[in-house]
Amino acid sequence: MLETEKIVLPSGIECEIQELTAEAERVLTNKADVKSGQWINKFIAKALVKINGKAAPQNQGELVNMLLDMKTGDRNYLLLRIRMQSYGDEMIFNYECPKCHKTSGYKLNLREMLDNGELKIYPYREDVPIVIETRDGIAEIDYTTGRSEQWLASLKEIDTIHLAIAACKSFNGKAPEYKDFCKLKTRDISKIRMAYSQLKGGLDPQIELNCYECDNSYKIMLQQVPDFFTPLTTLDNIGL
Ligand SMILES: [Zn+2]
Q1: Of the four listed, 32, 66, 107, 148, which is most buried by Cβ atoms within 10 Å?
Q2: Going edge to edge, which strands form the sheet with 48-51?
Q3: Measured in angstroms, how far is the CA atom of residue 89 from the centroid of ligand 1?
Q4: From ligand 1's centre to the CA of 102, what distance in Å?
Q5: How many angstroms separate the alpha carbon of residue 151 from the centre of ligand 1?
């Protein structure tokens, strides 16, 4: 039997997750899925047993749709708990400093970081969407979901306009379009960005690392660490 665990996501959704099997790691090696950003949904789908007391849909498409509608901060939290359940609380890894390009070794305890607030969980605000008036119309800003994550993952290069679009639920009542946003005044784009930056909700997956070689500190996302999903690094090869 696979072990299961009940968890509550930051928005209040109750989930039951089960330990991953080797099949889940296969999802991570599918290049097309990694490129399209689809892998993250397939990965979560492998672990999810129940949502709000009901069995997760057997139909993969239906389940993935449900996950795409989930808020990013909930998805980040879900991913973290799946990781902790299947691979444990400790994360041991090497990471290359973006400044001096030397590698340092790290050993983190994810549960302790959740408990002591190094990994932050923000409550969701109720007063969304935030309505922003621009010269060209009304923009509604809301929490991003798996859909906007996937859209961003599918782009070759992401600029600040893409980020503003991802944060917009609608523009003049319709899905926001790049060509419309290009015409917005920079002051309006910056209003949208400001509104979005105040919309913190769910798990913020940023962690701060300190380089042992040059003392530079920098922030990365948990998911950027390959050992988050496939722990291969051991204490012997990080030099701690
Ligand atoms: Zn460094």
Answers
A1: 148
A2: 4-8, 14-18, 48-51, 54-55
A3: 26
A4: 6
A5: 33
